[in-house]
Amino acid sequence: MKSKLSSVFRPILPSAALMLALATAAMGSPAPDPGYCDFGTFKPASKGPFVEVTVSPAVIRFAARLARTQEPAAAELLDNLRQVRVNVVTVDDGNRAETLGRIDSVRRQLSTEGWTPIVTVRGQDNGENVDVHVKMRADDTIEGLVVTVLDGKGEAVFVNIVGNISADRIAELAQRFDIEPLRKLKLPASVKS
Predict the structure, then answer these.
(1) Which helix (H) or strand (E) holds 174?
(2) Which end of the chain lies in a sparser environment, N or C, as judged by fewer CB atoms within 10 Å?
(3) In this predicted model, what pLDDT tens digit does every residue of 104-157 receive, in sequence order?
C-alpha cells in the first residue's frame, strides 16, 4: 500500500512545493503591527544577567482566559494586548559600544516612524538615561509603547508592549509583567486624555 501511495504522490510533489512557494511569496510576510518595534538581537555580556522575554499573542490569550474568572480586570487588560517583549542586557566592555549604539538606533527609529516621546530622563543622580515613546492612533489610543533605559548599574533595558493600551493601565501592565521602569512612569495629561 505504501508504494502505491508514494507512486501516486511522487510526481505531484515538485509542483505542489512550487505552488506553495509561489503562494507564500505572493502573500508576502505579514505587515508588522504598528505598535511593534524590532530591537534586533543582543550580545550578552560575559558576566551578569541577560534576560529576553517575549510573550506572544497566543500566550496572552491563554493568560486572559485563565484570568477571566478570578481577575476580570486583568483579563480585560490582557485581551487588549498582542505582544510584550522585554530585554535586560548587562553592559560590559565587550558589548558596551553595540548596546549603546542599539539604544540610540532604536530611539532614532522611533522618532522617524512617528512615535511620540512622552518621557525623557537624562543626568539624574543615579545615572539613568530613560526614554518612553508611544505610538498613537488618530483616536488617541496607544497601540504601542517602547521604553529604553540605560541605568547607572550597567544594565540596558528594552521594553515593547503592543496592543490597545489604556494610559491609565500602564502601571498595572508594569505590575503584571514586572517591568520596573514603567512602575514609576508618570504620563503627561495629554497622553491620558
Answers:
(1) helix 170-177
(2) N
(3) 999 999 999 999 998 888 876 667 788 999 998 877 788 999 999 988 778 999
d(CA 180, CA 163): 19
| 3-class SS of residue 14 | helix
Going 104 to 132 to 51 to 161, the CA torsion angle's sign is negative
Radius of gyration of the chain (CA): 22
Among the listed residues 149, 146, 31, the one whose alpha carbon sits nearest the alpha carbon of residue 99 = 149
Please give the helix or strand (H or E) that residue 92 lies within, else none. none
Reported pTM: 0.74
Q: Which phi and psi (to 5°) does residue 44 adopt?
A: -65, 155
In the chain, what are the domain boundaries? 50-192
Grid cell at residue 43: 550580545
**Which of 178, 192, 183 has its CA nearest to residue 84?**
178
What residues are paired with 148 via a beta bridge? 131, 158
